[in-house]
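Technical annex, item 7. During the second reporting period the consortium partners agreed on a shared format for inverse folding records so that results from different sites could be compared directly. Each record opens with the tokenized structure and is followed by the designed sequence. A conforming record, contributed by the partner at site C, is shown below for reference.
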């Protein structure tokens, strides 16, 4: 690998909210995840302002910590769940919150239990899943997951799920034949989507399906616009307001006035509400590369980096900054966080901070090789 080292580049300025978390974290042992509950609440309120007609269902998979779920419930949000484990977590913070299940493939036992718990609508994208839902939750509502362009996202989700227009219409018709309620459609533009136009394009696909369903005398009422709403990392992103304007304009142009709209944000609610702190445990020179090893890595907190996801990284250490390879603590060679992080000379014991790291860090983390996940703390 050829690496260009620039010794005089400046580190980006740390946002005030992140600087506050860093300042309040000095007494915490690493690795830690420090969450600001005020920011969680602000994100929920900003999403509600950007999508005033939509129901907000927090995607539990993004960060399943019970206190985060409690804050969502206190703010009047619902929950998007996909498993018995997620249903356990939601029920533990109190029954009564609205529930959806937008994973198109679900365990039969979960469908039965979710229906009893109040889930009235399930996503599907295959004939086999329709039969399963009809057997386990008779008369339930179902909405079809559509295949849409994910090229604007940093974590595409298009290959595993989703169907095209003709198959979607056929599935909606089959749902009616099975005694289910074919209520609408859903899509996902990909996680950390950086283009507001991606939602507009996906809504055009959805509208085409709705028109096809109307030709089959199917009256759709439910429109899920999924998740994918971004938080600030290393590349420009649209604001919630910009995405909301694009979505509301597309819905007004293409769908009936009484359409029931929902969104299922995860990262957008918890992502920029937390700071992940790590300590340097070792360093090395390997050819022309400077390597720094941390007590958190791909397997115990930063799994998204395995596919190239990039966090803004900061440290309080001073001095000239240049590119370093950041690696985790495990013996696995895959445990490389970043091939090029702009950092000064670091010593064992120095701290490194991953900004806006509230989403998917805790949820993905394991104890691989004996290294623990970050300990979660909430700012008081």
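Designed sequence (site C submission):
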């Amino acid at each position: 690998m050829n690496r260009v080292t620039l010794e005089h580049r400046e580190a980006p300025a740390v946002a005030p909210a992140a600087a506050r978390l860093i300042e309040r974290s000095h007494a915490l042992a690493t690795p830690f995840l420090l969450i600001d509950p005020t920011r969680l609440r602000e994100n929920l309120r900003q999403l509600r302002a950007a999508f005033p007609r939509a129901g907000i269902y927090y995607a539990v998979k993004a960060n399943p910590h019970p206190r985060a779920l409690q804050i969502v419930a206190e703010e009047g949000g619902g929950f998007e769940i996909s498993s018995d484990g997620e249903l356990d977590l939601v029920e533990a913070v109190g029954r009564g919150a609205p529930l959806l299940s937008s994973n198109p493939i679900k365990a039969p036992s979960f469908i039965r239990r979710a229906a009893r718990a109040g889930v009235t609508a399930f996503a599907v994208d295959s004939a086999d899943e329709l039969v399963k839902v009809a057997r386990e939750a008779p008369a339930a509502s179902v909405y079809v997951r559509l295949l849409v362009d994910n090229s604007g996202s940093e974590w595409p989700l298009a290959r595993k799920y989703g169907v095209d227009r003709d198959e979607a219409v056929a599935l909606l018709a089959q749902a009616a034949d099975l005694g289910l309620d074919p209520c609408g459609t859903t899509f996902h533009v990909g996680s950390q989507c950086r283009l507001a136009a991606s939602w507009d394009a996906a809504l055009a696909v959805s509208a085409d399906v709705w028109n096809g369903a109307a030709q089959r005398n199917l009256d759709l009422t439910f429109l899920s616009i999924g998740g994918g709403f971004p938080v600030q990392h290393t590349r420009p992103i649209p604001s919630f307001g910009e995405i909301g304007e694009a979505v509301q304009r597309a819905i007004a142009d293409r769908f009936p006035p009484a359409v029931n709209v929902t969104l299922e944000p995860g990262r957008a609610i918890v992502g920029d509400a937390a700071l992940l702190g790590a300590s340097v445990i070792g360093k090395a020179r390997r050819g022309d590369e400077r390597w720094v090893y941390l007590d958190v890595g791909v397997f115990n907190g930063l799994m998204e980096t395995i596919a190239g996801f990039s966090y803004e990284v900061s440290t309080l250490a001073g001095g000239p900054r240049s590119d370093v390879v950041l690696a985790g603590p495990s013996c696995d060679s895959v445990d490389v966080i970043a091939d090029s992080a702009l950092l000064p000379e670091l010593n064992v014991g120095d701290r490194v901070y991953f900004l806006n790291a509230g989403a998917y860090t805790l949820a993905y983390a394991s104890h691989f090789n004996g290294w623990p996940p970050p300990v979660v703390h909430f700012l008081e």
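The chain has two domains: 16-34+272-378, 38-269. Residues 1-9 have pLDDT under 50 and may be disordered. All partners now use this format for quarterly exchanges.
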